[in-house]
Specification:
By secondary structure, the chain is of the alpha+beta class. The protein is 31% helix and 36% strand. Helix 2 packs antiparallel against helix 3. The C terminus is likely disordered.
């Protein structure tokens, strides 16, 4: 089991290789990527920021829960921060298990919990030049609307 919040491109193949073992009959790879349209708006990219310490702690809790619930320690999650372009991977989840059903269930559990619980925020950049913070469970906050944006981790402010 391993989690990481990183500032570099994600290597899905390396994570897949890391969870592979002869004891497992199923290996699932989930890659979340920046798509070109969200909620009917054309997107050019996304910035991800986080409260890194809390995000890592929550991700670790989620992976620990999934490992216990679905019976595998062969589980890795990496989430990328920073500015991503269309097609770039923002999150990769690799799960291996002796049986496919448990592998699929563990992967789905992890991504759904990440979206609900982990303090990682995204600001979408649109074709029209505008940008908006998009938060799970919260309405969109557009720049210039008077709403405050989430504060990124100190390590991101200097970048």
């Amino acid at each position: 089991m391993r989690i990481a919040v990183v500032d570099r491109p994600l290597d899905a193949a390396a994570l897949l290789d890391e969870v592979s073992a002869f004891r497992n009959g199923a290996t699932i790879l989930f890659v979340g990527a920046v798509r070109e349209v969200n909620d009917g708006r054309a997107v050019t990219g996304i910035e991800y920021s986080a409260y890194r310490t809390m995000a890592e702690r929550e991700m670790r809790d989620i992976v620990t829960e999934a490992a216990a619930q679905f019976g595998t320690d062969d589980l890795i999650v990496e989430h990328r921060l920073g500015t991503l372009r269309l097609g770039d991977a923002s999150v990769v989840i690799a799960v291996a298990h002796p049986h496919r059903g448990a592998a699929y269930d563990a992967s789905r559990y992890v991504i759904e919990q990440l979206k609900q619980r982990v303090p990682i925020w995204k600001r979408e950049h649109y074709v029209d030049g505008s940008r908006a913070w998009v938060n799970a469970g919260h309405p969109e906050r557009s720049e210039g609307s008077g709403a405050s944006a989430p504060e990124p981790d100190a390590s991101l402010r200097s970048a």
